[in-house]
């Protein structure tokens, strides 16, 4: 085996130019694979965090008067994630007080809030720590709030609104602002549910359960959510295409390398066969040479791909996400597939006539 490795190195470094094109192909393929995976994953995360922040599988209902009893009814529906009153917000000076029901706080990954507790945006209150107390004037009185949690607002619509966001429980909101009834109600449906099918069922059940003389009506359907889901699918499909192209490019590079070796080394093969080196050993020489080039191409492709991804991510404002396990797995698959496919050209060795080769050379 040592002899075969030595022979492979001698053949490879004896003609570097011949191996340059396959090496470049593998390097480009691996680099493109890393860029596609990291930037694609980063873009997908941006869509999930940003676009999904401004759109959800939500509907807006309008009616004569909604209150917390309606929230409790909806909490019992299995297809409803949470519900809240969009008008449960009051501006006081530079602050916006927002009321959320218990279920909504839970689904938004906020802690359960008691009276006198609040959640604030860390970017608006950078010096505040959890557990500290904030005091605000509400009307003619001072109200104290213990900071239960700091969060980072990601909804672009909320970020465009002026005022410091102070999230409190719906019960406490109603108590301090004396607001118990609302004309609109937002319902967030399970993301796996088809809103077109579910809306008529929801309306019928909700109207029956409310026992109200005036029926509620749909004010807004989740059209934006559907568009965001389509965008997600487009991004995923584009990512898959880029991965496949990178996969093929690298695999073809390895196959071309081995095939080119056999064509360029016809005389060497003839000599090897003439001095009695077995065909299997000759095949191993070419495979070892292919593995060496592939390994070097993968290292350089990994370094170049990582640098391009980091710099490119900064230029297009998409923070890359490196999923190391997935990247390593696909790179290994490229190597294995390329070598398996590269074995096919080695069958030509059997067809080489040793006598004819030696006469010509």
TrEMBL record:
The keyword Signal does not apply. GO terms for cellular component: plasma membrane protein complex. Signal peptide: none annotated. It is found in: Cell membrane. The chain crosses the membrane at residues 20-42, 239-258, 291-315, 327-344. It holds the Pfam family FtsX. It is a multi-pass membrane protein. Residues 241-353 form the ABC3 transporter permease C-terminal domain. Keywords: Cell membrane, Membrane, Transmembrane, Transmembrane helix. GO terms for biological process: lipoprotein localization to outer membrane. InterPro entries: ABC3_permease_C (IPR003838), Lipoprotein-release_system (IPR051447). The keyword Cell membrane applies. Its main location: membrane. Belongs to the ABC-4 integral membrane protein family. LolC/E subfamily. This is FtsX-like permease family protein.
